Amino acid sequence: MGEDKILVAVENDILRKKIAKTLRESGFVIAEARDGRGIISHLNEDPPIILFLDVNLPEISGWEVCRELKNDQLTRRIGIILSAYDADENDRVKGLELGADDFINYPFGMREMLARVKALYRRIRLTQNHIRVRDIEIDLDEHRVKKAGRPIDLTYIQFKLLYLLASRRENVFSRQEILEKVWGHKIYVTNRTVDVHIKRLREKLGEVKYPSKYIETIHGVGYRFM
Q1: Residue 76: which residues within 8 A CB-CB, separation 6 or more?
Q2: I want to staple 5 with a disulfide (CB 3.0 to 4.6 A). Which of 48, 84, 117, 162 is the partner?
Q3: Architecture of 5-128 per CATH?
Q4: Is the pLDDT of residue 3 over 60?
Q5: Which tens digits make up the pLDDT trace of 184-200?
Q6: What are the sequence ranges of the domains in the chain?
Q7: Is 87 strand, coil or helix?
Q8: What is the pTM of this model?
Q9: Class of domain 130-225
Q10: CB proximity list for 157: less than 8 A, separation 6 or greater
């Protein structure tokens, strides 16, 4: 499933590890949290593509976590599957109204859980394969970029760089994060390499003046797509 991560936030250690093991064996990258503070820590470090969320978490309830994530511009695109023990119709409606993408009741089988996660993952990836930000269109399937309807010729690295920034719009990426996600861990390049490629990408996007219309420099930190 690539580098897309699923965060399993369930207080019960046995159940959480069972869910994580099932998802991991299906090829997903998994992180775990047992309370609201653990979720926040993961969100600050590396946001997941999907959050499997128990509503009865200690400290901060899953209801509140769901509400906060879906009301925040930076996290609202994270897919959320809420879970609860013997939830009734009112609980399920409440979860969906808070912005959850799905709701699953305890007790549930691992096959059903996995099927629901995979279904949500497919929906998210489908929407992520085509990104439009103002006059910039990025098509991941066809590996094409257009500006105001006209194709832009990008190198493979420039395309990966643009897609990374635009797919997590408003996120600030450090140079080190960009190096790891675009070039990978096994290839040695420097922070200066990132700056050079950002400059060339801006030129391809028609940027000739400062400040940039598309890629903002966050001094002392890194870059983000506006």
Answers
A1: 69, 70, 99
A2: 48
A3: 3-Layer(aba) Sandwich (3.40)
A4: no
A5: 765 667 778 899 999 99
A6: 5-128, 130-225
A7: coil
A8: 0.62
A9: mainly alpha
A10: 182, 183, 197
